[in-house]
Write a structure and sequence with these properties.
This protein is 39% helix and 18% strand. It has a domain of 103 residues: 2-Layer Sandwich (Nucleotidyltransferase, domain 5), CATH 3.30.420.270. The chain is α/β, with parallel strands linked by helices.
Length: 158
């Protein structure tokens, strides 16, 4: 039996070239579609608050504004500002840390004071289920106008 003759025309190189092209295109595809952003941390929708702040929120007509703005950005949390938007029968209120604010103008002032401390802080907006999108956008715009670049919305984990 005769052994098959080798084809010496160089067709082996052609098959290897197309394989290299496919690998290169796959490499380009995966690099192009991958994201190099930092992954978001887990954003809790219910915030652990001190008992004094919970009592201040539950008491009708009493706002807890005894804390200073600097205490809202404590040493261990200077990189994060959480704003809860609460809708109830009294209207819309904004909770920044343990301070409950009933109007957007005062919330803007608090955000301006926080921006003076750290404009690189991440602002997380955590609205209740009954809050309208317009109220969320108002708070988002207020945070951006004060100079915060990273304004995010909290989401519930599935």
């Amino acid at each position: 039996m005769k052994a098959p003759a080798r084809n010496e025309s160089g067709n082996d190189d052609l098959a290897m070239t197309s394989m290299i092209d496919v690998v290169f295109l796959l490499l380009v595809f995966f690099v192009w579609t991958s994201s190099f952003d930092k992954p978001e941390t887990d954003l809790a929708s219910r915030i652990a608050m001190p008992a004094k702040a919970v009592e201040a929120m539950d008491a009708p007509g009493i706002e807890s504004d005894s804390l200073r703005t600097e205490s809202l950005l404590t040493e261990d949390r200077r990189d994060e500002v959480i704003i809860r938007i609460i809708a109830d029968d009294r209207g819309i209120s904004y909770q920044i840390g343990a301070i409950v604010i009933t109007d957007l103008a005062t919330a803007r002032e608090k955000l301006a004071a926080m921006a003076a401390i750290n404009k690189n802080a991440i602002v997380i907006i955590d609205p209740d289920d009954s809050v309208t999108a317009a109220d969320c956008i108002d708070v988002f715009d207020a945070a951006r106008q004060q100079g915060f670049a990273n304004v995010l919305f909290a989401v519930e984990s599935a």
